[in-house]
Amino acid sequence: MTTPRLTVKQLFDRESCTYTYLLIDPQTGEGAIIDPVLELFERDLQIINELGVELLYAIETHAHADHITSSGKLREQVGARLVYGRDSGIEAIDIPLADGETITLGHYQVRALFTPGHTNGCTCYFVDGMLFSGDTLLIRGCGRTDFQNGDAGQLYDSITHKLFVLSDDTIVYPAHDYNGRTSSTIGEEKRWNPRLGGGRPRQEFVDLMNNLNLDMPKRINEAVPANMSVGINFDANRYLLRDFSMDDLHGVWQDLPKSTLVMDNRTPDEFARGHVPGARNIPMGTENGHVDELRQFERVYLYCRSGRRAQTTMTNLSFQGLNHVVCVSHSGMPDWEKAGYPVET
Ligand SMILES: [Fe+2]
Fold this sequence. Notes:
- By secondary structure, this protein is α/β, with parallel strands linked by helices.
- The protein contains twelve helices and 18 strands.
- Strand 2 (about 20-25) and strand 3 (about 30-35) form a beta hairpin.
- It binds fe (ii) ion.
């Protein structure tokens, strides 16, 4: 008797344009869900129950920056085990998979392909002629590489050495699409992907990726720290102060406990021209060298000029396991000066 094809239900989140996939072995009823979204937990649970799926795994391609995962909740409520790439840095993984390792889903083997680049912990999953490519390879695109320890050169190598070597008819199911497309194939992407298809050289790809100048995802300050702890036990007040402003910073700065640090991550020149009194200058890009030191503080307040660099840095730090950083996300030093607060030079 031949094994029937693995059943795939492709589910969509309109808010973040995320695809969630429910995989089911039609013979055993065992299933796995890939990249589930917290707000759509009830929808997904209903389908799982209606189809009588025994959900063995909640699998993540990476720590997402644009939505919070429901993996933790699925583990709590239906006993699914959490599967991540081993190098994702996520807390509380049940099954960390290294490159090439597999998990058994009914008659099928789901194989992990470690594909760093969009983040340093991205993993794609291959099963039954299908590739669940996360944000590593999108339809006619690829994930950005400008935060979460992304690296364009690494992404190029991951896609060309790990994914483009799969057979051309491999079906590609990405974690997102913003244009209504639902799947692709390796052959199509090798030929038509405008970023690195058609044999585009590595350096051209790196230059292209490093000059995209994209806005930060709307929910990054909330989603990344939450997803590092698999979306559960997430204390919003502790990790997330939405729209924390320079005025709010001024409020806490006036009576700052010793255990708290104000961190300015602009360039040394900008810092020298005027900063919040008492602030430490740790320019963006150097924060990884200060992780142990930052860990000593109970809380770190982070600002820059517009909020953009501070958000990027906060995300990087949360990837190093720091979840006590509060970031001024949509303002910065000019607003402090405009308000007439004291400035140190
Ligand atoms: Fe992503």
